Amino acid sequence: PARVGDWVEGRAEVVRQTRSLLFTTIFLTVGDEKILRASSIAKIPSGDGLSYGKARLAREATES
Question: How far is the C-alpha of 39 from the C-alpha of 62, rounded, in Å?
């Protein structure tokens, strides 16, 4: 495990991408030592619906 004061770095690696899903493996490391490995599945927004519009507006606000 990491100790108080350790620099913990996280990296996500894409394992597979389909039209609507993204499969990743996530690693947390301290130096060269891996302290955590996790897998995740994320839904890629389709471009329709209210949540996609909110995400687009938030992104545009940060870009300007």
Answer: 29
* Chain-centroid distance, C-alpha 17: 13
| CA nearest neighbour of 43 among 18, 20, 59 | 20
Joined tokens for residue 29: 């490391």
Do 24 and 37 form a contact (C-beta atoms < 8 A)? no
Q: Provide the residue-wise pLDDT of the chain in tens; the chain has 64 residues.
A: 889 999 999 999 999 999 889 999 999 999 999 999 999 999 887 766 666 566 666 667 776 5
pTM as predicted: 0.59
Tokens of 61: 């606000």
